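Lecture 7, part B: from sequences to assemblies.

Below are the input chains for today's worked example.
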Amino acid sequence: MSPDPNAPAHAAPPARALPGRGEQRRHVLVVIVNNKPGVLNRVASLMRARSFNIETLAVSHLDDPEISRMTVTLRGDDVHVEQATKQLYKLIDVLKVQDVTDEPTVQHELALVKVRATDRTRTELISIVEMYKGRLVDMSPESVIVETTGTEAEVDALIALLRGYGIKEMVRTGTVVMSRGPQSIEEATKR
Amino acid sequence: MTATKGESRAATTPAGGASAQGQPSPGAARASGATDSPGAARASGTTPAARRSHEPAAGTAVAEAVARAQREMLHEGGPARARDGDPARPRERARIGADVVCEAILRQGVDVLFGYPGGVILPLYDVLADHPELRHVLVRHEQGAAHAADGYARASGRVGVCLGTSGPAATNLVTGIANAQLDSIPLVAITGNVPAALIGKDAFQEIDITGITLPMTKHNYLVRDANDLPRVFAEAFHIARTGRPGPVHVDITKDALQQETDAPHPSLEEVIAGLPGFRPNMDGHPRQIKLVAHEIARAKRPIILAGHGILVAGATEELRTLAEQLQIPVAWTLLGIGALDETHPLAYGYMGMHGWKHVNRAIQAADLIIALGMRFDDRVTGNVRSYAPYARIVHVDIDPAEIGKNVAVEVPVVGDVGRVLRALLQQVKPLAPGARAEYLDQLAEWRRESEATSWHGSGAWRDGHLSADFVVSEIGEATNHDATLVADVGQNQMWVARYGGFRRPNSHLSSGGLGTMGYAMPAAMGAALGRPDKETWAICGDGGFQMTMQQLATLVQDRIPVRIALLDNHKLGMIRQWQELFYDRNYHSSHLFGPDYVKLAEAYGIPAWKVRAPDEVRPAIEAARAVDGPALVWFEIAEEQNVFPIMPAGKGLSDLIEKWGGADE
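Predicted structure of the full complex, as structure tokens:
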């Protein structure tokens, strides 16, 4: 009989790998849920209780009024996020969970930024916004509201430039995501 | 039923505001005191005209609904119904939401519910007598109702049902619901809530109970419409018992309980079709099962870890067949006790923090772990880094979220363990007799070594006091290893797990995941009613017993034949042990005063015996067994007996402490 763990460790075995200690990265989950009161609370409560930190969360109705779609972004290693998806599946009101991190997708968010604008800076601001395919949706003697959509990185880039003029107020929707190509997570959810 | 109701009211009245959950005068007086000022002022016409009111405008539909709801909550009943004066004769009346609840429970094959009446649940108590097949057990605290339903479920394999009113009753149920959640026990917990129009208004005894139970249930519901009740209850029972079982909480507003309805009960097919988000995977993937067969064929030192899943799936036969055909020894978790008859030659023992040394040693030396319906809890693995260092792991569980949660595994199989084992048995070839002789001989030698150490079978006496392991093994022997033994939490739990000697599935009940002190007595009430054909013993320490001993009254009033073995060391034994071992003998708050338990039991009319010497143990057990009804045996045991071996927190299965200082346990 060998090996006996109580014998001298002539060949100590390697330590067993722990789940969830791998490389941290941003994951994007699409979650299709029943469109019922309290479902957002169930999802949020589960993520909190299991120590998954949500970075962004966007929720909306779909064409089918019975279901809603959530886009959740969170950071973690692959095993950790897989655990999150499995726990989400255990919620009765969750119909489908898909980690689309490694799939070709369109990932966009929308931001509204209220920026200080004087007669001196307004023209310059407008040209920056145009260059970044944003638009002005409101204007006052001291400020403008800039609307922009795009990937998180694109929105970040524009905001970095606007920061120099003085950001008075800002709101971002969080990422919404859709897989490229003909496949549809919504159709795949239909019973 | 009338007698029960009368007595329950008598029981709640003297308790006053603190625990009276009902309408009796103290509660009602306080309620009206808290809420009557706006209404009363307005009614008497003294409201200053300028004062802005947050009440809905008088005469509107909302105002009427709120006023009606307040009336119905603060005063008896809803719409008055004529009574014909004979409570035994069913009344001529329409079917209401409360009837639906009773029908739904009976339709699920459940015949007992454990509950406590109170304000907003009274409409349900009002119709219970019209459903005489449904037995209601009046507990003395709602936590006990949840534990009793839990014990009923574990012992009988059916769904347990408990019942309480809103507010304090609902929060009292929470501990029992959490206990069921962590141990995967099928439970339907029913609470009343204030009328729908008062929800969110901080009405008397209103609390957001569905918000509280959300993270500790498999699913929960707030029902405001009686027409939803048939569907909700059919779903609740289906969810509670299907896949990995768990508790489901149904909160029902008082007006929904009183509302007339003719909604039909749905069929199981309709229920399943209505739950597209709940499709547990029952059959393991054939490819994975083939991989398991390969792993087993390659392994030289395989060991099976049998968990609660074996009992839940009713797969004890399949487990035994697999072990016998492939000559693989079987170790078990705390909740896996009873998965294999402990006298079976391949039954190796209890694993983990307080497991047998030889079992943990075999796990650490194994080259293949076949984990069946268990979840690699930290009490089982210790430090994961050093857990089973030579083993590849096959993990079969019905809950995909358990796979890879605590330890990384080589071959996962998601499915019902019974179905997976049946499929696996088709894939494996029985081994020739003696094929694993060398391995099994080694394990047998380890077992002999382990059993020869001083902490094992220490005999009846310890420093002139009774030893706890002796008492527990005597109870096992006296009951022919066929009784249901319900452990509490702490040292007594470990002694029961190791020395009870279990041969029958579901004959060992223990609060594993939550570790709820006070579990044994109420859970034993449920077990005794769930399996009336089996003798039931609650084995408690003096700490846990004092947490739920109010249920002695329940045992008497509802004539539940639970035998209580009280292992009294005047200590919170496990706390004291940890303080001795890990906190430099700083014995703060672990010494425990207790009453004269014989007098206590006799005050309830329960026969009781006190035992201090080994030769009194067996006669007292036999005397308690001879009682037709509840009985108590008070064992005064050694004050400082430790449970050894023990794996210190953060250490691994190879780091067991077997003795401490000079005290050789």
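Note for the exam: Chain A has a mean pLDDT of 89. Keep this in mind when comparing with the next example.
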